[in-house]
TrEMBL record:
This is Sulfatase N-terminal domain-containing protein. InterPro entries: Alkaline_phosphatase_core_sf (IPR017850), Sulfatase (IPR050738), Sulfatase_N (IPR000917). It comes from marine metagenome. Residues 1-153 form the Sulfatase N-terminal domain. Belongs to the sulfatase family. Gene3D superfamilies: 3.30.1120.10, Alkaline Phosphatase, subunit A. One of its GO terms (molecular function) is arylsulfatase activity. The lineage of its organism: unclassified sequences, metagenomes, ecological metagenomes. Pfam families: Sulfatase.
Length: 336
């Protein structure tokens, strides 16, 4: 069961009783050391702080989670239920967000630790010991294989799963080394600034990509994340070869993604209207054509894919060693 509370999330709102409870809460947050986030705060300095309403939303969230836990206990389902609580990103610390990730740097919309390092808690009554913690890197990609293993359910995925089974680490404290680098990109549709990162257990490279109509600038920031988890010291100038190597990894990773893009939009297309009934918005599979749309056609896919290269993929699921030399073929359609 997936239960998204969609809170806390802007626009912030909560029951009047909770808003009244926190109305006098002062906003004593420090700067995040993320230029775009701190700039948004300074531009909105004359507006009312979102911090009090944010606190009200968090308590409302706590009450909702409490109701779920209480129901599971009353129904005798605690020992049959694995509960995983997590967030999709770091707190929104920009103007209107109300969150605070201190001492981590940044927040939602960038790839500093404050933007991608989220809290999580897991409970399985009678199986997991309370009061323990996992001091290892676990990503959202690890959730599916981890919970599948814990529940003894075989995964039936067709696509390759990049996550790891972290259940031995959670249940027995086993040390599991990373199997490769981890990549992230900021998902916020801010067209003037975009963040990417690649990191391992020792080093982390953050790329701040700013753009205008006439130019694109890439700023590389290197952190020894094992010793500097709050990202105070940019040591890029001291390790130019390492920066070059990690930047190349990001380039290749970004180039494997669809040319059409996967980022959300600030506003819908002109004239678009939301359906009155969202259940009718999705077209059933049996009403779609059997084959994926080929756009220009399969005969030019390989040529275009090879020419576009770093701009993104037309042919998906291509072996990374193949697309650089234009060997990719059109993917076979698989029914899920």
């Amino acid at each position: 069961l997936y239960m998204p509370f969609i809170a806390p999330h802007s626009p912030l709102d909560a029951p009047d009783k909770l808003i009244s409870k926190y109305k006098n809460l002062k906003d004593n947050r420090k700067l995040t050391r993320s230029k775009s986030i701190d700039r948004s705060r300074s531009l909105s300095s004359q507006r009312k702080s979102a911090r009090p309403v944010y606190a009200a939303v968090v308590e409302a969230l706590d009450q909702g989670i409490g109701a779920v836990l209480k129901t599971l206990k009353e129904e005798g389902l605690e020992e049959e239920t694995i509960i995983l609580f997590s967030s999709d990103n770091g707190g929104a610390t920009y103007a209107g967000g109300g969150a605070d990730n201190f001492p981590l740097r940044g927040g939602k919309g960038d790839t500093y630790e404050g933007g991608i390092r989220a809290i999580a808690a897991i409970k399985w009554e009678g199986v997991l010991k309370s009061g323990t913690s996992l001091e290892q890197i676990m990503t959202i990609m690890d959730v599916f294989p981890t919970l599948s293993n814990a529940a003894g359910v075989k995964m039936r995925n067709i696509k390759e799963i990049y996550g790891r089974n972290m259940w031995p680490a959670i249940s027995k404290g086993k040390k599991l080394d990373l199997e490769g680098d981890i990549f992230f990109a900021s998902e916020t549709p801010n067209y003037g600034e975009f963040h990417t990162t690649v990191f391992n257990e020792k080093w982390k490279l953050v790329q701040v990509i700013t753009s205008s109509l006439l130019e694109v600038n890439v700023e590389n920031q290197l952190f020894k994340i094992s010793q500097d988890p709050n990202e105070y010291n940019n040591v890029a100038s001291a390790h130019p070869k390492l920066v070059q190597s990690m930047a190349e990894k990001i380039r290749r990773w970004r180039a494997l993604h669809p040319i059409s893009g996967v980022r959300s939009e600030l506003v819908p297309p002109p004239g678009w209207r939301a359906p009155k009934d969202w259940t009718s918005y999705t077209i059933p599979t049996n009403e779609l054509q059997n084959d994926a749309s080929l756009g220009f056609g399969a005969h030019v896919h390989q040529l275009l894919d090879f020419l576009l290269k770093d701009h993104g993929r037309i042919i998906y699921d291509c072996d990374p060693n193949d697309w650089e030399v234009g060997k990719c073929s059109s993917p076979k359609v698989k029914n899920h």
